[in-house]
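Notes from the 1:1 (GR / supervisor)

We went over the backlog. Supervisor wanted to see one worked example end to end before approving the batch request, so GR pasted a single chain during the call. The sequence is below; no edits were made to it. Supervisor asked that the structure be written out right there so they could see what the output format looks like.
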Amino acid sequence: MEIESTTSSPPEWDAYVRCHPQGTAYHLSAAVAIGNETFGLRTTYCVAREAGGRLIGVLPVVEQSSVLFGRFHVSLPFFTYGGILADDEEVAAVLARHAADLARARHAGHLELRHTELLSGLNLPRRTDKVSMLLPLPSSEAALFRQLGARLRSRIRRVDRQALQFEWGGAGLLPDFYGVFAPAMHALGTPVYPRRFFETTYRALSQHIRVLVVRLSGEVQAGAILIGHGSRIEVPWSAATPVAKHAGINMRMYWEMLREAVRLEAQAFDFGRSTRDSGTYQFKARWGAMPLQLHWHYWLPEGASIPKLNHSNPKYALAASVWRRMPLWCANVLGPHIIRNLP
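Structure output shown during the call:
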């Protein structure tokens, strides 16, 4: 077995990803490059080959660093999915050891590998507090509406009395989406991605991505970005104004997304990542979504513990509190410089 690392993807990379049962849109070479193209982050394509040269495993690695959290490597930041794809656990273990060697050589504080399955052959510590929330979809909109339950159906019908306009489209709707997304992230105390991040993501995944915006009296009140991979359609980013949340427009937007997923014959709708029993977890569970365990494996220097780059970390929580008090215009200017180094 031979392992190689390059700064650009080998020609066979995408073909391998598309054929692998755990491959996602985020594993595709153009998506792996999003961090580099948007923020200039060092990106490494690790591949394993058998003696004859055939590709038998891939692993994308992106390097990030910040004043608060130091230098670290992630496969793959900004997205829920993107870890090792390999023919078997032996190949996966070799790729993981290679990535750990790269992290060690770059004096990284940790390496994070994001998987939807437990790779027992890695023998690495892991986090299990994160889940994806998946809703299996029936073959018709009517069947989907019936399975939601009376209370949820009533809320959807009630919002339908408003004169909402739903617009599906592409890159042209990103400014409308971003106009809702940026203030929503500010209210959460989270630095916002720059608009160019979404523009780069759209170009990289143009065959897999759609944008939805919801208008009330001509004003955008909610928006979402959907990405399809395999038999699923995922909503990694969505946002709504305070007005939309109060009026239940965000609920109606989710129903519109589910209808579209059924129309496109998806087998499941992925509501995105949540922490177990959090508010977002409970919101998604009300739609009938079930948790899919995520396994995030870590290489750590000897004696180090699994990092907490989230609100459970006092440094992170303090920064979020300060961020919410910052004027929105200032947060929008500074946010992209900070979020580039948050995984």
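Supervisor's comment: The radius of gyration is 20 Å.
Batch request approved.
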